[in-house]
Amino acid sequence: MSNLKNLTGPLSANNPVIVQILGICSALAVTIKLEPAFVMGLSVMVVTAFANLVMSLLRNGIPSRIRIIVQLVVIAALVILVDQVLKAFVYDVSKQLSVYVGLIITNCIIMGRVEAYALGNKPWASFLDGIGNGLGYMAILVIVAFFRELFGSGCLFGIQVIPDSFYAAGYSNMGIMLFPPMALILVGVIIWVHRSFKKDLQEK
Amino acid sequence: MGLRKLVDKIKPTFSEGGKLSFLASTFDAFETFLYVPNTTTKSGAHIRDCNDMKRTMSVVILALLPAFFFGCYWAGAQVDLTGFTAGWYGFVRILPMVAVSYIVGLGIEFAYAQIRKEEVNEGYLVTGLLIPMIMPISTPLWMVALGVAFAVIFGKEVFGGTGMNIFNPALTARVFVFFAFTPQMSGEKVWYSDWTMMGVTAEGIDAATGATALEQLSTTGEMKWSAMDAFLGFIPGSFGETSTLCILIGAAILLFTKVASWRTMFSVFAGGLALGYLFQWCGPEEWRNIPAYYHILVGGFALGAVFMATDPVTSAQTNTGKYIVGFMTGALAVLVRVVNPAYPEGMMLAILFMNALAPTIDYFVVEANIKRRKKLIKK
Fold first, then answer.
1. Mean pLDDT across the stretch B76-91?
2. By Cβ atoms counted within 10 A, which residue in A199, B16, B156, B344 is the most buried?
């Protein structure tokens, strides 16, 4: 029962992006289009889940004073793996994501979950916690990217969804959606809407 | 005073316990619009004023009118109309934009006031007129609506409404529309009315079009209008920004009634001129032949200096701060114009940037004052 909570908690009430405000940098950088946002979310989910799993398995054997360096080795190895897989199978997206795949190492969500959860919990629970947080991160990325791609370039997943007749009638894409500041405003709006539903999260 | 009686009669319906009490804010807004209320503003941006905010705002609107009417006339004159017809054409042309600006902006303000159960603030009355005046005349209405909605929600209400905003709402609207729809906000055609009516033909419009003075200056280093044309306002540009003369009349009204701060206004012009002379002396090649005072005559410099840099909410609050912020606004505007080729007009960005810095500057001014006084005590 508590395992299920690990999976669903980070989706809303304990979302890493909009409640803990972690991983904002990449959320602004890779959300111009849906496809890279989706792939990025997936990559972070895989890395978080397996980093949690490995660290949870090793948790009783690592002296606490060298745990950070061990975490870094594990996370870095996983990120390199993910990077290679992306390059092999979805080269275009990997190109679009450029340095941000490598920068998953520095994503606070991963280190945070390993430190805060995996080092004190059993492997299966940690794995689910990683999946849950990755999903929470991905959900926000996809929502932001949905609006940015729809209003910024009139497409979804690269396919034009706003009909030509709209453009002929005077409609126009919003260039501002392609700038990172608008992503920040969108994340702000998501936080605003989310908190107005979850009143217990509102600060006094 | 039939109206007064009517207002008094229906007042209980909207007061607490009345049938329509949920519309109390709306009622209050209309009542104070019709009659001077028997209370004065107690807190917020205008605490130093004996007048209530609605009266202050009315003076600003009055000061805006010369530039507005000139804009109407010039919109018609650009497409080969003359005399009264030109003015009427321009007025009819701009009216939908003003209407959209007020309906969307006030709609959101009323809704917010109602939800929060506060009085409706008057701050939007000026913003609503300023927004059409700082847009190119052919901006599509839905873009205006979007810009207004963005400005009111994210520029103002998110921070807590009038008096709490960090950025000037009118410029927030423009900056949003400018970056969202860059092609529709720059270039050659957008500065001219694109309506064919009252005898205006499509050919006539095409014949009139051309880049703004600033765009010409930044690309070729010269402009085809004389300084006098630029001063009187016979140059292309946003609806209300072209005539420096009319804006100065507005400035005189604002200064005479002490609604705007002469410190800010003066130092914006000083800053612009100072940097203008600097660039004339050792600037980029193409800007050396351009007299410094051109910067004040063309583009939105004068309008921004008089009506937007002096915004009592977003500008500095301390007197020393006003000098510093004003000077830097003017200097920054000219700096952007000359050095950054991507933005021919720098006034908007300069004012917004200094809006963001104003509280910090105020803080240091206050701190310095405290230090100075502490020293006096020790002596």
1. 78
2. B156
Q: Looking at the domain assignment, is residue A175 inside a domain?
A: yes
Q: What is the largest CA-CA distance in chain B?
A: 78
Quick one: which of B97, B77, B98, B101 has its CA closest to B87? B77
pLDDT digits (tens, 9 = 90+) for B273-325: 998 888 888 877 777 777 878 888 887 888 888 888 888 888 888 888 899 99
Q: At what angle do helices B53-78 and B244-256 cross, to 10 degrees?
A: 170
| H-helix or E-strand spanning residue B321 | helix B319-339
- Whole-model pTM? 0.82
Q: Which two tokens stand for residue B330?
A: 């003017």
Contact residues for A202 (Cβ-Cβ < 8 A; gap 6+):
A195
CB B297 within 8 A of CB B214: no
B332 in Cβ contact with B346 (< 8 Å) = yes
Candidates A172, A176, A177; nearest CB to B184 = A172
How confident is residue B36, by pLDDT bands cut at 50, 70 and 90? low
Q: Tell me how many degrees the CA angle B264-B268-B271 measures, rounded to the nearest 5.
A: 135
Mutate to test the interface with A, among B141, B176, B179 (most CBs of A within 10 A): B179
The whole-number pLDDT of residue B46 equals 45
Q: Cβ contact (<8 Å) for B154 and A176?
A: no
* Residue A5 domain flag: no
Partner A contacted by B142 (CB < 8 A) = yes
Picking from A176, A179, A195 by the largest number of B CB atoms within 10 A of its own CB, the best residue to mutate is A176
Residue A123 lies in a domain: yes
User: Residue ranges per domain, chain B?
Assistant: 22-35+53-210, 212-379
**Residue A58 lies in domain:** 12-196
Check CB contact under 8 Å for A185 and B140.
Answer: no
Tell me if A204 is assigned to some domain.
Answer: no
- Tell me the pLDDT tens digit for each residue of B217-255: 766 666 777 777 878 878 888 888 888 888 899 899 888
pLDDT along chain A (204 residues), means of 10: 73 80 83 87 91 89 88 91 90 83 85 86 88 89 90 82 78 82 89 84 73
Amino acid in the structure at residue A27: A
Nearest beta carbon to residue A176 from set B180, B183, B184? B180
Distance between CA atoms of residues B237 and A101, nearest Å: 46
Render B170-217 in DSSP notation, one character per residue: HHHHHHHHHHHSHHHHSSSSTTS-----TT--HHHHHHH----HHHHH
Both tokens assigned to A100: 């941000």
Cβ distance of B142 and A170 shorter than 8 Å: yes
Number of domains in chain A: 1
CB of B300 closer than 8 Å to CB of B334 = no
Chains A and B form CB pairs within 8 A to the count of 19
